Amino acid sequence: MFYHLFHFLQEYNIPGARLFDYITFRAGFALLLSLFIAIVIGRRIIDRLQIMQVGELVRNLGLQGQLEKKGTPTMGGIIIIISILIPCLLLGKLNNVYMILMIVSTIWCGALGFADDYIKVAHHNKEGMKGKFKIVGQVGLGLIVGLTMYLSPAVVMSENVEVVDPETHELVIEHKAQNIKSTQTTIPFVKNHNFDYAYLTKWMGDSAQTGGWIVFILVTIFVITAVSNGANLTDGLDGLATGTSAIIGVALAIMCYLGGNVIYSTYLNIMYIPDSSELVVYAAAFIGATIGFLWYNSYPAQVFMGDTGSLCLGGIIAVFAILIRKELLIPILCAIFFVEDLSVMIQVLYFKITKRKSGVGKRIFKMTPLHHHFQVPAGQVDAKWQNPKGAIPESKIVMRFFLVAIFLAVITFVTLKIR
User: Fold this and answer.
1) Cis ω on the peptide bond leading into residue 377 (within 30° of 0)?
2) Predicted pLDDT of residue 276
3) Class of residue 346 by CB neighbours under 10 A (exposed 0-12, middle 13-18, buried 19+)
4) Where are the domains of the chain?
5) Strands 194-196 and 160-164
6) Which of 59, 108, 122, 287 could be disulfide-bonded to 249 (CB atoms 3.0-4.6 Å)?
7) What is the pTM of this model?
8) Measured CA distances, 176 to 259, 266, 285, 326, 379 (Å)
C-alpha cells in the first residue's frame, strides 16, 4: 500500500518518496513494524485467549515440568500471522507475483493450522484434524504454488554462464541478457549450482520441459508437506520452533537478497531471479514476527503457537525456498525439521517391526519427536520417567538446537562455494 502510494507521490517530487523504492529500507521498516506488532498486539491476543479459556491440552508423558504447561493459551500463531501480513500489505509491492504467493501461502497454512487447533480446543480432542485432511491442504498449496510458477510469465530466471574475458583471458561468470522460463534450481556441491528437473524427463523428447514442470510441482508438494509437518513436530518445547524458524528465516532472507541482485548473483555464480528481491521485505517481516513471538514463547512460555503457528511457519519456509529456487538446500538448512520427522517415522516403524517379530515392541529413541529424547535420562523408561533426575533442562535443549540451526545455516552458505 505505502509502496504504491509513495511511488505515485514521486511524480510530485515529495521529499523522501523515493525511499520506498529501496528494498533495504522497506525490509528494515517491515522488520521493526512486525516486531512491534508482535510484542504490542501479542499481549492483547494472549489476554483474550486466556479470557476465552483457549488452553493447551497436555498428555502426561512424565516429562519434567510438562503438566505445568496445562492451560497455557494456545493458537498464538495468530500473532505471527498478523505480524507478517500487516507489514507486507503496507510495505510490499502487491503486484509482485512472489509477494502474492507468500501472502496466499501464509493465509492458507494459517487457516489449515487454525482449523486443527479449533478442533482440539472446541472438542477437547488432542489429535485434532485427521492427518489426511492436513495432507490434502498441504497438497493443495503445493499445486497452487507449483502451477502459478509454471503458468505465470513473471516467474523467470537468468542463466549464469562461464565466458572468457577477452582482456585477462580468465573465466568469468555472466548472466544471459534474456530471461527464460526454466525448471532449473540450485543444488549444493555442484560446480555451477544449477540442476534442471527437465533432465529427469529428457526421455520424453520434445515434451521434456513440460515433464520437468510436472516433476517440479511434485517436488513442491513434497517439500511443503515435509517441512510443514517437520515444523509442527518441532513445536514441542518452549521457543524451539519459533527460534529455529527465525534463524532459517535470516538465512533465506540473505539468499533471497543475493539471488535477486544481478551483481551479487554473478559474483557468487548463483542463478539470478528477477523481481524475487521483493521477498526480502516478506522475509524481514517473518523474522520480526518470530522474534517478537519469542518474547512471549521463550521458556517458560506464556503462549503456545499451536498448529496455527507451526504449520504456518513450516509452509512459509518451504514456499519461500521454492520461490527462490533453493528447495534442494532445505535438507541442510532445515535439517532439524527433517530429523524430527525422521525420528518419529523410525520410532514407529522399528516398534511395529519388533512387535511383529517378538511380540514386544522396542524403541530406538527414549521418546519422539527427537527433542523429547533429551528430556529423558539414560537408563530410564516408561514409569521411571515420572522422576527424571539428570534429564537435560528444557531451556538448555532449546538453546543447543538454536546453535545447531545456526551451524546448519552457515553450512548451507558454504555449499554455495564448495564445487
Assistant:
1) no
2) 92
3) middle
4) 2-55+71-380+391-415
5) unpaired
6) 287
7) 0.90
8) 15, 11, 32, 20, 61
